[in-house]
């Protein structure tokens, strides 16, 4: 609780927390939506925002506000799957590479570095082209997670490397603690905060990549996400036709989401790193 | 000799291995996905209602089967795949049949290369200098303003940021053109008018890439410099009366640049992808736009060509960055 109270003193944490809570509430609202997001022409088309249609309606005949609640929910689902699964990969690879060292370490880091070096975006495009007709939320999340672990595995590995040199490692080994137990019980608590902050960054990355793929039409466009909403708005030339309420809804929501996630991760990692904390307090 | 053995040879081996791994992934993707890529592509082209002469269609089927190399065992296919690559043969494009993929890529490449090199240079140098100064003078007002700007800009993905710039500067205030690399009908030539036209069209894409890339460099550099500041050699230099300008320029930034060079090498792939996405937003006629048209037209061959080509380009770029590293760091040179 004290940690939370300290964190809330950072205005960035406070603001991003509030924004994220609002966005999550919005995602939850999709559960009580009066409209089915997959049906078209359920409301009059191209209406301006009004008391009845809070954020107006689009050229597909859908209510922009309720559509946005589904979009936010689905984007969050995709990115949470991507974040969670790639965390598991990153933790496994990072810990094994850091703890085992030697050849295992070199091979794992080579694979990871190659993933960083290869233009993943193009590989994703190739894959998405071929599996487009099977594409759903879970598959997209898994695809993203398969490519999103490399950098974080590297970060976790270097943390483990420094932990391995500490005295308590030797104490544990000499007192007969097994490797698995040592890693899970002794190292996990140290790496947890770090893993959490990489998770936030990964979620943000996944949302961004989903938007990019959706703009290119490489996902299932009938599932509302922030990306597909933007795709439809662009497809119907909503900018040229002046339907700002339609195009600005996904743009504003994603901008808010990106800034909030980033500020959250920065404020947490600054709090965790005592060096910058001292600088901040001392300033 | 130790330099060659310890640094150069491992780097070269890594270079070859990464290319091998990347291209192997490109080879595997169509084979691991659950449907026959050739028939799927054909169906997709038919579905789009493309009209092709029967002869062309046969040619495409054969070319596709050959390019995917779907005859024989996987090992045979793998060998044939590499054989074609070594001959520099990426097959034909569908949507601009019978143009060779090579030729399309080479036509688009100068645009991407120019945009990418200029913006990466600007954002790296500019971001590092500003970040270094802001890190050293972190209590000054301007340093905080820059920091705040970077905090807002940094989290945006390339697409969203480019799109926001486009909305503001091409639709709301009409300072820049909405799309294209040059005005329609402008003849490519080395006249001032044409160059000015191209520069005017390139401004927004370039700004978008420079600001986003610069923000990343700014922030990492600032952090590194703040850590170096706490080191005793800086304190010592201050106490012995070395001028601040000299400390920043000569000692602090130089030391902090080393990890930034490594960082540049590691992020080159991402920067490249970002440039492709930015090109798509601004309709800039480079590889990104070619990729976009290939996606819209279901031109798998062209996408594959662009991907393989990019893997070669990026890994070579990283190798070059890595090879300049010893010039900056004497420890690598002499150890």
Give keywords.
A: mainly alpha, B: 335 residues, mainly alpha, 78% helix
Describe the structure.
The complex is a heterodimer of chains A (283) and B (335). With 283 residues, chain A is mainly α. Helix content of chain A is 74%, strand content 0%. Chain A is elongated, with a radius of gyration of 22 Å. The mean pLDDT of chain A is 84. Chain B is mainly alpha-helical and 335 residues long. In chain B, α1 packs antiparallel against α12 and α7 packs across α8. The model of chain B has no long low-confidence stretch (mean pLDDT 82). The chains are: A mainly alpha (283), B mainly alpha (335). At the A-B interface, α4, α5, α9, α11 and α12 of A face α1, α7, α8, α10 and α11 of B.
Give the H and E element order of chain A.
HHHHHHHHHHHH
Secondary-structure-derived class of chain B = mainly alpha
Q: Spans of chain A of 5+ residues with little confidence (pLDDT < 50)?
A: none
Largest sheet of chain A: none
List the helices and strands and how they pair.
The complex is a heterodimer of chains A (283) and B (335).
Chain A: H1 2-8, H2 11-29, H3 64-100, H4 102-117, H5 120-131, H6 137-147, H7 150-164, H8 167-174, H9 179-215, H10 226-235, H11 244-272, H12 274-282
Helix pairs in contact in A: 2-3, 2-11, 3-4, 3-6, 3-7, 3-9, 3-10, 3-11, 4-7, 7-9, 9-10, 9-11, 10-11
Chain B: H1 2-32, H2 37-47, H3 54-67, H4 74-86, H5 101-136, H6 141-153, H7 158-172, H8 192-229, H9 232-239, H10 244-282, H11 287-296, H12 300-328, H13 330-334
Question: Could you give a short description of this structure?
Answer:
The complex is a heterodimer of chains A (283) and B (335). With 283 residues, chain A is mainly alpha-helical. Chain A has helices at residues 2-8, 11-29, 64-100, 102-117, 120-131, 137-147, 150-164, 167-174, 179-215, 226-235, 244-272, 274-282.
């Amino acid at each position: 609780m004290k940690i939370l109270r300290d964190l809330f003193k950072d205005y960035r944490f406070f603001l991003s927390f509030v924004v994220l809570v609002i966005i999550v509430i919005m995602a939850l609202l999709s559960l009580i939506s009066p409209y089915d997001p997959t049906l078209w022409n359920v409301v009059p088309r191209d209406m301006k925002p009004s008391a009845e249609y809070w954020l107006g309606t689009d050229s597909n005949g859908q209510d922009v506000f309720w559509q946005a609640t589904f979009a936010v929910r689905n984007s969050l689902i995709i990115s949470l799957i991507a974040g969670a699964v790639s965390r598991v990969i990153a933790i496994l690879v990072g810990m094994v590479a850091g703890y085992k060292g030697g050849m295992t370490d070199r091979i794992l880091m080579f694979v990871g570095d190659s993933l960083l070096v290869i233009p993943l975006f193009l590989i994703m495009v190739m894959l998405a082209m071929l599996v487009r007709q099977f594409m759903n939320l879970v598959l997209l999340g898994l695809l993203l997670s398969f490519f999103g672990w490399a950098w974080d595995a590297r970060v976790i590995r270097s943390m483990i490397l420094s932990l391995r040199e500490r005295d308590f490692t030797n104490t544990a080994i000499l007192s007969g603690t097994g490797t698995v137990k040592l890693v899970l019980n002794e190292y996990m608590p140290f790496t947890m905060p770090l893993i959490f902050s990489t998770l936030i960054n990964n979620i943000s990355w996944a949302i961004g990549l989903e938007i990019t793929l959706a703009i290119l039409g490489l996902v299932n466009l009938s599932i509302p996400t922030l990306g597909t909403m933007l795709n439809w708005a662009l497809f119907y030339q909503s900018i040229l036709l002046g339907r700002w309420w339609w195009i600005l809804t996904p743009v504003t929501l994603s901008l808010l989401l990106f800034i909030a996630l980033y500020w959250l991760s920065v404020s947490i990692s600054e709090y965790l790193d005592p060096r910058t904390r001292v600088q901040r307090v001392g300033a | 000799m130790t330099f060659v053995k310890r640094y150069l040879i491992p780097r070269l081996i890594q270079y070859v291995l990464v290319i091998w791994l990347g291209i192997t992934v490109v080879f595997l993707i169509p084979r691991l996905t659950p449907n026959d890529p050739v028939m799927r592509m054909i169906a997709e082209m038919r579905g789009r209602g493309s009209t092709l002469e029967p002869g062309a269609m046969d040619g495409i089927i054969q070319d596709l089967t050959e390019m995917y190399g779907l005859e024989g065992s996987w090992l045979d296919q793998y060998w044939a795949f590499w054989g074609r690559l070594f001959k520099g043969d990426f097959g034909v494009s569908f949507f601009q049949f019978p143009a060779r993929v090579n030729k399309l890529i080479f036509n688009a490449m100068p645009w991407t290369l120019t945009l990418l090199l200029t913006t990466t240079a600007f954002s790296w140098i500019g971001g590092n200098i500003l970040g270094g100064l802001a890190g050293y003078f972190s209590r000054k007002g301007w340093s905080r303003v820059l920091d705040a700007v970077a905090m807002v800009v940094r989290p945006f993905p390339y697409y969203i940021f480019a799109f926001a710039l486009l909305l503001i500067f091409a639709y709301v205030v009409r300072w820049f053109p909405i799309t294209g690399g040059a005005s329609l009908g402008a003849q490519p030539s080395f006249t001032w008018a044409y160059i000015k036209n191209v520069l005017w069209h390139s401004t927004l894409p370039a700004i978008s890439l420079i600001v986003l890339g610069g923000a990343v460099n700014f922030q990492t550099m600032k952090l590194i410099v703040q850590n170096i500041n706490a080191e005793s050699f800086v304190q010592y230099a201050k106490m012995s009366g070395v001028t601040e300008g000299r400390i920043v320029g000569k000692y602090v930034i130089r030391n902090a640049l080393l990890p930034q060079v490594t960082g540049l090498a590691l992020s080159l792939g991402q920067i490249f992808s970002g440039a492709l996405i930015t090109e798509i937003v601004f309709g800039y006629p480079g590889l990104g736009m070619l990729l976009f048209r290939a996606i819209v037209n279901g031109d798998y061959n062209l996408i594959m060509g662009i991907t393989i080509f990019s893997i070669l380009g990026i890994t070579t770029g990283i190798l070059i960055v890595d090879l300049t590293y010893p010039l900056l760091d004497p420890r690598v040179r002499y150890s």
